[in-house]
Specification:
Number of strands of chain B: 0
Order of helices and strands of chain A: HHHHHH
Helix content of chain A: over 70%
Number of domains of chain A: 2
Structural class of chain B: mainly alpha
Number of helices of chain A: 6
CATH architecture of the largest domain in chain A: Up-down Bundle
Oligomer: heterodimer
Number of helices of chain B: 3
Shape of chain A: globular
Helix content of chain B: over 70%
Shape of chain B: elongated
Distance between the termini of chain A: 60 Å
Structural class of chain A: mainly alpha
Largest interface: A-B, 87 and 74 residues
CATH topology of the largest domain in chain A: Four Helix Bundle (Hemerythrin (Met), subunit A)
Strand content of chain B: under 5%
CATH architecture of chain B: Orthogonal Bundle
């Protein structure tokens, strides 16, 4: 019961924060409501008993990515101009609504094989076993740092003064 | 009692809001923020599938970790590109950045 109440509150706040991101005219306030949306997504992970992912969400999204976005807003002095829409506003709205309708229809009409087993808690040892253990995801884990290194080098090369 | 469908619809709503923002906005940073919203919606769907379909395998949570890695790399490179464009052209209006438009 408590999980249901928490889900509805978090979902309402998260959807409103997401709407604020695309509807607010002030870019800085949009970035702050994006942080709020990331926080409610972390709460959603907790209601799904994904404790490790909730911590990672707060560390990476709320901690790092939002700081990067706010830093970029500060570095590009476009805050006065706000966040205007382009000519595609109505087609974009139609595409989004059609997508939402189609996906919701497909989701509600698919007979999901929902398992009745209780969720695994705590999840951190199990995720560690999956990531680093035998027959797990060790190759993607090894590729991820290469991607991060390439991203860091690319970012440095892009913003370096000539 | 909330079930799998509730989480999936929440994920679809977040993804659609991000899709609208990515298509309709002119500020490049707001477009990047909308893409982050879309990635978060997909993550919620992955974790919900992992919780309700295979509660003991956690495969969806591992996929979510990889999505987060790619999102972090994408934000770093994307913001570097935006700052580089701003430095050369004094604007981040996506309708005016049309150097590679045919």
């Amino acid at each position: 019961m408590g999980v249901s109440i928490a889900f509805w509150i978090l979902a309402a706040i998260g959807v409103m924060a997401a709407l604020a991101v695309v509807l607010l005219r002030d870019v800085f306030r949009a970035a702050l409501s994006l942080v709020l949306c990331f926080l409610t997504v972390a709460g959603i992970y907790i209601t799904l008993s994904a404790d490790f992912l909730a911590a990672v969400q707060i560390l990476i999204y709320v901690g790092a990515i939002s700081v990067l976005i706010i830093l970029a807003i500060m570095l590009t002095r476009e805050v006065q101009r706000g966040s205007p829409s382009n000519k595609l506003q109505i087609p974009a709205f139609l595409v989004a609504v059609l997508f939402l309708g189609g996906v919701t229809f497909a989701m509600l009409n698919t007979p999901w094989a929902v398992s009745s087993a209780p969720p695994l808690e705590p999840t951190t040892p199990a995720i560690a076993g999956l990531l680093f253990g035998e027959g797990g995801f060790i190759l993607p884990v090894e590729i991820a740092p290469i991607l991060l290194l390439a991203a860091i080098l690319g970012a440095i090369a892009l913003v370096r003064e000539k | 009692m909330v079930g799998l469908e509730h989480y999936l619809i929440l994920a679809a709503v977040l993804f659609s809001i991000g899709l609208y923002g990515a298509l309709a906005k002119r500020n490049a940073i707001v477009i990047l923020m909308s893409i982050e919203l879309m990635l978060n919606g997909v993550n919620i769907a992955l974790v919900a599938f992992s919780r309700y379909i295979v509660p003991l395998m956690l495969t969806g949570q591992v996929f979510t970790i990889f999505v987060m890695v790619v999102a972090a790399a994408e934000v770093a490179v994307g913001l570097a590109i935006i700052i580089s464009i701003y430095r050369h052209r004094e604007t981040i209006d996506a309708t005016k950045i049309n150097l590679m438009k045919w």
